[in-house]
Amino acid sequence: METGMEITGQRPPTGVRDALPMLAALVPFGLTVGAAVAASDVGPFTGWSSSWLIVGGGAQLVAVQLLDGGAHAALIVAMTLVVNARHLLYSASIAPYAQPWPRRWRLLGAYVLADPVYALAIGRFERVGERPAARLRYYAGVAAVLWPGWLLITGAGVLLAGLLPDTLPLTFAVPLGFLLLLLPMLKDLPAIAAAAAGGAVALATAGLPLGLNVLLGGAAGALAGMSAGGGDA
């Protein structure tokens, strides 16, 4: 097993290069979150702080909406955990690849394991056979772009919310954002079926409150993916 792994290298970091297009795709989603914070009665700084406290756009929107509505703290925590429950699956999926990393990097990696980081990392880890140190460099490069980038985009959404037209259908940015995150993982029929079904349901139910359209889309996508996988067996 490798020891003393470092996250620096002589070659240009591939993780950074892969993360930049993903960051651009997240701009509508991040502006939506920032605009929702600005439109609520939650203080701008408090609302924006959820970007680095929760590290999950869908759960962040739910938390801000519930805080704005005066919901009880227990309900806010519970709903946030429900929306972010998919991260448990992310961690279980990526754990075999991260197991050789030093403990401090696994802990930091768990913190930044948001949707886009997972999408890029698992897409590469399953496709490219690399040593643990190379995987760590890639993961660190992706996170170094997407984590601060998300903070900047949501902050811009808070500051620029008043300049966005009221007729702009920002609610569609959320399910569309999740669809963009799925693109690196569309490698077989079950994945394509899950993305298509989940995206369709999330878009069709975009008017539901508390991010329920995302939950319904996730459930529909999981069922479609399992059905497609069973059909190929």
Automatic annotation (TrEMBL):
**Cited Pfam families:** AzlC
**UniProt subcellular location:** Cell membrane
Q: How does it sit in the membrane?
A: Multi-pass membrane protein
- Record field: transmembrane: 20-39, 138-161, 167-186, 193-216
Question: Could you mention a single GO BP entry for this protein?
Answer: L-valine transmembrane transport
**Keyword list, A-Z:** Cell membrane, Membrane, Transmembrane, Transmembrane helix, Transport
- Predominant cellular place of this UniProt entry's protein: membrane
Q: Could you name the Gene Ontology cellular component terms for this entry? A: plasma membrane
Query: What protein family is recorded?
Result: Belongs to the AzlC family.
Task: Give the protein name, as stated in the record.
Answer: Branched-chain amino acid ABC transporter permease
